[in-house]
Amino acid sequence: MRRPIIAGNWKMNNTRTDAKALITALVPLVADAEPEVVVCVPFTAVETVAAAAKGTNIAVGAQNVAWADKGAFTGEISAAMLKDVGAEYVIIGHSERRQYFGETDATVNLRAVQAIKNGLKPIICVGETLDEREDGETERVVSSQVRGAFEGIAEGMLANVVIAYEPVWAIGTGKTATAEQAQETVAYIRKVFASLYGAALAQKTRVQYGGSMNPANAAELMSKPDVDGGLIGGASLRAEEFAKVVNYKGAAI
Ligand code: PGA
Q1: Active site residue 94
Q2: Catalytic residue status for 139
C-alpha cells in the first residue's frame, strides 16, 4: 500500500555536463521501475537534470532549502527558486548538514515547514551516530529528531512527507545496517510518527533506509515490512548501479 521510493543523493558531485550524462544513462534503465524514482542533485544541476528527466518517471530534487521566502540569507536557495528550476523533492536535515553545517532539529523543522508550504516534497533525514548506537541511545535520538523535525506541523500538511532513517555510521562507510537493524529502527520511527499523528497517517507515510545501500543489499533491506525505500549516496553516482537498486525486485534475496 506504500509505494516504495528510491532516491539518489548525489551530494556534491557532478557538473552540469556530468549530470546530464548520468541522467541520460539512467532514464532507460529505470523506465519500467515499480518504485518511485528520485534524484536529488546539486543546486547547479537541478535545471539541467529536470530538463533531461522531463516526461520520464524520474523526479528531481535538491539537497537543502532555505527557511525563508527571500531576503538577506547569503548562500541560501529558496523553495520558490527550487520549484522554478524544476525540483519536486528536497532532502532536509541530512547528517552531513547536521555534522558540518550546524543544522539542528530546529532548523530542520523550519526548512520542512517552508518546503511543505511551497509544495516541495521533503525527505527528512534522521539517524544516530555510532557512539549513540553503542550507548543504546538509538531510539532516544531518532525519537527526538522526529519530534523536533515535525514540531508544530499540522497533520494536514504531511501528505507528501518522506522520512529517511540514515544511521550516521553507515553513511559512506560501506557499513550497512543489517536488514533487521533497519527494520527495527524504521518501525520505531513509524511508531513515534504514529504517536504524533495517529496510526492511519503513519501507515501511509513512507520511511526509507539510507547508508551504504547498494545492488547487493537492496533486495534484502526492501524485503522488510516497514522499509519503504532507500536514500542512496555513492551507488547513485553510477547509472547501472543505481538502476539495480531501483530494480531490486529482479534481484535475488
Ligand atoms: P551512502 O550515502 O549510500 O553513500 O552511504 C547515503 C546518504 O548519505 O544519503
Answers
A1: yes
A2: no
